[in-house]
Each structure stands twice: as C-alpha cells, then as structure tokens.
Design brief:
Organism: Amphibacillus marinus
Strand order of the largest sheet: 1-2
CATH topology of the largest domain: 434 Repressor (Amino-terminal Domain)
Protein name: DNA-binding transcriptional regulator, XRE-family HTH domain
Number of domains: 2
GO molecular function: DNA binding
CATH architecture of the largest domain: Orthogonal Bundle
Keywords: DNA-binding
Low-confidence stretches: none
Oligomer: single chain
Number of helices: 8
Structural class: mainly alpha
Number of strands: 2
CATH class of the largest domain: Mainly Alpha
C-alpha cells in the first residue's frame, strides 16, 4: 500500500488541498486522514471510492494497479465504458473515415486492422 499513500499525498498536493479539507470531505478527523498518507491506517473501500471521486482518478490508479489517472467516464452501452483517450481515438478514427470502414464488417475489419497494426509495430521495434 506504499504506492497508495504516495499517490494520495501527491494528488492532494497537486490539487492544492490541505489534509483537513479532505478529512472534512470524508467526514473523518484530520489525523485519521493523515494516517492514510503515512500508511499507518488503510481506508475502507467506501472511503477509497470517495477519494477517487474527490481527486477524479480511477480506483485502480489510486491503489497502484495502473499508471493512468483517468476515470472511465463515458458509458457507451451496458457494460462498456471508455476513458477519455479511448474516446479521442474513436473520434480520430471517425475523422479519417476509418471508423465507417471498420463498421462495414466490424469483426473481420478489426481483426485485419489489428494484424496490420502489430505488423507495423513490430517493424518499428526492430529498427
């Protein structure tokens, strides 16, 4: 949980918050919050969710499971949510007309695109 306490402190400082401000948001004492940053105590799951919302980051980022701060914030359909950068990639595909081409036969065209992408990626890595 060392990465958690480091990220917690870093996020608080990046947002310009004091420990007492976060403690009030969580409805806990300042010292209780300070213990989270010091690694002397671990927050409950409900508190971790609140912290992720306060700092607008994913729970995975907060806990150190990935390096992306982004929150999945766009629900596309049931069970499918996208990060902002994923939405930007889709928008870029749409702007180039490639998205429309992919949609003509989604499964087959996506597989072709993936094969092509990995071919190009391997070529670049070999250079």
């Amino acid at each position: 949980m060392k990465l958690f306490q480091e990220r917690l402190k870093l996020l608080r400082e990046q947002h310009g918050y004091k420990q007492d401000f976060i403690a009030k948001k969580l409805n806990i004492t300042t010292s209780a919050y300070g213990y989270y940053e010091q690694g002397r105590n671990e927050p409950a799951l409900e508190t971790i969710v609140k912290l992720a919302n306060i700092f607008d980051v994913s729970i995975d980022y907060l806990l150190g499971h990935n390096s992306s701060k982004q929150v999945r914030n766009s629900q596309v359909s049931e069970g499918i949510a996208l990060y902002q950068d994923e939405l930007a990639a889709i928008e870029a595909l749409k702007e180039t007309g490639l998205l429309r081409e992919l949609c003509k036969s989604p499964k087959a065209n996506t597989e072709r695109l993936a094969r092509f992408w990995f071919f190009v990626k391997n070529e670049i890595e070999e250079d």
